[in-house]
Write a structure and sequence with these properties.
- The chain is 6% helix and 43% strand.
- By secondary structure, the chain is mainly β.
- A hairpin with a 3-residue loop joins strand 13 and strand 14.
- The longest helix has 9 residues, at 9-17.
Amino acid sequence: MLGGLSLSKAALGAALALAGLNTAYGLYPDEAGRIDWHQAQIGAPTKIVPYAFNSSSTGIFAITSRNTLASLDAATGTISWRQTYGVDETIKTLRVRDTRVLTLSGNNETHVRVWDANDGSLAWGFTQPADANYRRGSGAAEFIEDSEDAVAVVGDSVVRLAPGSTVPVWEVPLNATASYRRIVVGTKTAFVVGNARPTKKKPQPRLQVIEVDLESGAVLQKYQFANEQTVESDRVVFLQSKQYGSYVVWREKKSIVWFIHRLGMQQPEWELYHAKLVQVELMPEDMLTSTMREVDSDPALNH
């Protein structure tokens, strides 16, 4: 383990309830607290992604507290390679697909980089200069399925980026009504999700979505949902699948009900109770404090 890896009962239940959306990972009770190996040279992990190098070798990609991207052998903890980012270049996104590792970093000037998963060499990169309209906290990136391209929130825009190009394939200016921190890519469109800025009419937190066409960059719709929720909340989780679509699942404070929203559909929304969500008995106190955690992984591990 790398500093410990766990999955709450609610997260496991959700993964099973929405079968096929993603692989679920967890610990057996006797594994809790057990350390298989320890790596002290790169800092504590803030995000990890399991990866299949081949049929017999697995690894871990990690972002650490030292602002380092590292590749480690999953069995031994040996560091295969690492990249350390600048002081003002906080790593905000880590995605792994096939033999590519995607990162987005920066606290004003934004850097999108794609690394070779095997040796850590830079495959290609894109830099968005400092933006006067930049809202601190914005920034996200995601690979496009069956493509070498990526979609990213850089500065005050969402862009589609292609390898080797110094300019975006398309660029869509974002408005000042949200801080966008997540991208969910579908088959033909991408959903840019952020925290809506409070207004006099709507002072409470809400999620805001802008759906864009992947081919042209055209904005298809914009809407808000999920009162009292933020993208980074431990009561909000994103689930994504080619077959089943993309969903946001959340639980309001002091409630035992999990709400389910399919991205792109302003209505309807569904409710999911713990009796259906988790195959173990939970007392009311547990229901009111349960959380969900996403576990990202290389799709090759899901087969």
